[in-house]
Design goal:
The chain has 152 residues and is an alpha+beta fold. It has a domain of 102 residues: Arc Repressor Mutant, subunit A (Orthogonal Bundle), CATH 1.10.10.10. The chain has six helices and five strands. Strands 3-5-4 form a three-stranded antiparallel β-sheet. A two-stranded antiparallel sheet has the order 1-2. Helix 2 crosses helix 5 and helix 3 crosses helix 4. The mean pLDDT is 90.
Length: 152
């Protein structure tokens, strides 16, 4: 799909939006490479964002198969990072939620990620105020519903 154009030029918001997503993803990968992250940390983050969910719902939001999510949840339960309990609305299903230990682990990972970004910031030309502006823009973009109806 080609970006919308005005005349013969690409819409600046489209071009910058593409760059934002590209560079945000690269930053996340660079920061994660420096950490020894358990595979399930992504699921901890999803539970923090969405609250308690069933295994099938977790698989949908993570875009993985239900058997893959079941195995991940099993490992997270064994680590003590999530709690799996009976779904009060459906006795055949279960609900997964963050445990205090899982919340602490997620906090540790986020703190280490922040330290990695702060080190890059200190080594470059940008200020903490500029970083605060970037964070505010990202937060606002995620706070508003997607006009195309899908979730970010």
């Amino acid at each position: 799909m080609t970006p919308p154009t005005t005349g013969s030029h690409v819409d600046p918001a489209v071009a910058l939006g593409g760059e934002l997503v590209t560079h945000a993803a690269r930053l996340v990968r660079a920061v994660r490479r420096k950490q020894d992250l358990a595979a399930g940390v992504r699921v901890l983050s999803l539970l923090d964002e969405h609250g308690p969910l069933g295994v099938s719902a977790l698989a949908r939001v993570d875009r993985c198969s239900q058997p893959t999510m079941s195995a991940t949840v099993r490992d997270l339960v064994a680590d003590g990072w999530v709690v799996k309990a009976a779904d009060p609305g459906d006795a055949r299903a279960s609900v997964v939620s963050l445990s205090p230990a899982g919340r602490a682990e997620l906090g540790r990972v986020r703190r280490r990620s922040g330290e990695a970004v702060a080190a890059r910031l200190a080594a470059g030309p940008h200020t903490p105020d500029e970083l605060a502006t970037a964070v505010a823009v990202l937060r606002d973009l995620l706070a508003h519903p997607d006009p195309e109806g899908s979730s970010l």
